[in-house]
Write a structure and sequence with these properties.
Structural class: alpha/beta
Oligomer: single chain
Number of domains: 1
InterPro entries: AbpA_HamA_C
Number of helices: 11
Pfam family, one: HamA
Radius of gyration: 20 Å
Protein name: Anti-bacteriophage protein A/HamA C-terminal domain-containing protein
Shape: globular
Mean pLDDT: 91
Length: 321
């Protein structure tokens, strides 16, 4: 592998904004056959937040491709769970050694997911990772799954940590929160309640500590350059902007068959999306979050339980009745 082929390769002369952008792995084509992006992003007036909506793509019989999405998410677990340095070490092996090592990493990653909890949110967290990394090209800079001390517990703190360099040189850190509820209102409320402390400076200290000690770009030099933003003695520490990313998953009745029936259901979906966006705006205002940039993803689904079970099944986790 040459230096140009390595997305994390760098030297002190390479602009850091380019280096961080190279950390993005994969693209939207990896999930596009199971997801439909509905409508254009909605910039919420009076805020810096954007609302987006994704739904399950359906087959010709109108069946949502939930199993396909679960398979595609399961295919991401090595990149999602395993530190980049460990993956980079495998990439340096000969081809005949890489396959068993990749298999070993996949098995290790699968074992990090909770095995016994019925209402785990880890499938939603994995989906949020995919939406940020593959949809918005904002790379994950800290694999919190690899830091779990018990496979029967979900990790504490933010559900994801992503970052990108802005054109002005600031580092935008995205704290992720993913919520799954039957009710969209409950999912919105819980998600905003969870993300607020990270944006207002009341809850991110522990996760910043984890970044300082466990951030991993797969390249020691790149990691060191990025960590300058988290060194309080560095001028760069004054150029960190805390942002948010929220996945709001919930049950939507009379689930549409998309994209085939989009024209027939557009009016109904437009009304629903406008209502979700307005409700999001009110929650942001009530929590004094209008000045913070937040990416809000709405993910209506036929069944929250079926989504959880489908992801667990692909990870070979026993599904409880």
């Amino acid at each position: 592998m040459t230096n140009d082929d390595d997305p994390s390769a760098s030297n002190t002369q390479t602009p850091l904004i380019e280096v961080v952008q190279r950390l993005v792995r994969g693209g939207w084509d990896e999930v596009e056959s199971s997801l439909v992006t509905y409508g254009d992003p909605i910039a919420l007036d009076g805020t810096r937040s954007t609302v987006r909506c994704h739904l399950l793509r359906s087959d010709p019989l109108g069946t949502p491709r939930l199993k396909t999405l679960a398979q595609q998410l399961a295919n991401q677990i090595v990149n999602y769970c395993i530190p980049r340095t460990d993956i980079e070490k495998v990439s340096q092996l000969s081809p005949d050694r890489q396959v068993p090592e990749i298999t070993r990493l996949a098995n290790e990653a699968a074992r990090l997911f909770t095995q016994t909890q019925v209402k785990t949110g880890e499938g939603a967290e994995l989906l949020l990772y995919a939406l940020l990394e593959k949809g918005l090209e904002i790379p994950q800079v800290l694999s919190k799954m690899s830091l779990k001390t018990s496979t029967e517990m979900q990790y504490h703190g933010a559900d994801g940590v992503h970052a990108k360099l802005l054109e002005n040189g600031d580092l935008a850190v995205y704290w992720g929160e993913a919520k799954l509820y039957e009710s969209v209102a409950k999912a919105m409320t819980d998600c905003m309640d969870s993300i607020a402390p990270y944006l207002t400076g009341m809850a991110h200290e522990q996760d910043v500590f984890l970044i300082r000690h466990y951030a991993d770009t797969g390249n020691a030099e790149v990691t060191a350059r990025l960590l300058e933003y988290f060194n309080d003695s560095s001028l760069l520490s004054a150029s960190v902007e805390m942002r948010g990313a929220c996945l709001i998953g919930f049950v939507h009745d009379n689930y549409p068959s998309l994209p085939r029936d989009e024209a027939a259901v557009r009016a109904e979906l437009d009304v629903a999306l406008a209502s979700w966006a307005e409700s999001t705006k009110k929650r942001l205002e009530n929590r004094s979050l209008t000045a913070h940039a937040i990416e809000v993803f709405f993910f209506p689904m036929p069944s929250v339980k079926d989504f959880r079970d489908a992801v667990k099944s692909e990870l070979r986790i026993d599904v409880k009745p």
